[in-house]
Amino acid sequence: MSEAPRPPTPVGAVFGKFAAATLARLLYRVTITGRENVPRTGPVILAPNHTSFLDAPLLMGTCPRPVHTLAKKELFKGPLGWLLHAVGQIPLDRDDPSRGMIKAGTGVLDVGRVLVVFPEGTRGAGDFAELRTGLAWFALRSGAPVVPVVFAGTAGRGRTLGGMPGLRSRVEVVFGRPVTLPAGGGRTRSALDAATEQLREALVAHREAVASRTEEHK
Fold first, then answer.
1. For FRET with 209, which of 5, 104, 138, 171 sits at 20 to 30 Å CA-CA?
2. What's 10-216's CATH class?
3. Which helix (H) or strand (E) segment is 39 a member of?
4. Of 160, 188, 171, 216, the residue nearest 48 (C-alpha)
């Protein structure tokens, strides 16, 4: 039986935000757009696209509020695992989400904090073409608004650590307008699938808007 995730601590998440923000400023030229779209209080779910190892720590450092991220359990080993626990992040078994993980994630939202759910489940093209149902489940369960997030410039030259953008590269984090699903919905599989598709359309629209604006400024 796998060990239940430790309850995330708000103090750890605050420290993680400070440390990540400091590193981001030192290593990259970071632009943050749409921070006003993140509600200043209450539960919030951030739904970022995912193309790079840099995405999670960059979001931790640029979000206006401290965050708790659902991250693959394979990362929670050795010194890195200790650090992730210390800054309030939550291990996730992508193939078999445990009750402990679900309780930890909903607990973050129940006390009015910010939960990060990578809706695609893993690094990839970052186009929101296929979403897992976890994002919609948390949104329907909590009634928390879902804020789309798109990264620009983080993918670099591939999906490995060696492909990360070079030092002092320009990277951008763009927060989109929040989407709110009715709390308590999604009791059936069809309702959950419909909510997932609604969110997917909103995420894709945000990504396309960011891509279009980026192309115009080239």
1. 138
2. alpha beta
3. none
4. 171
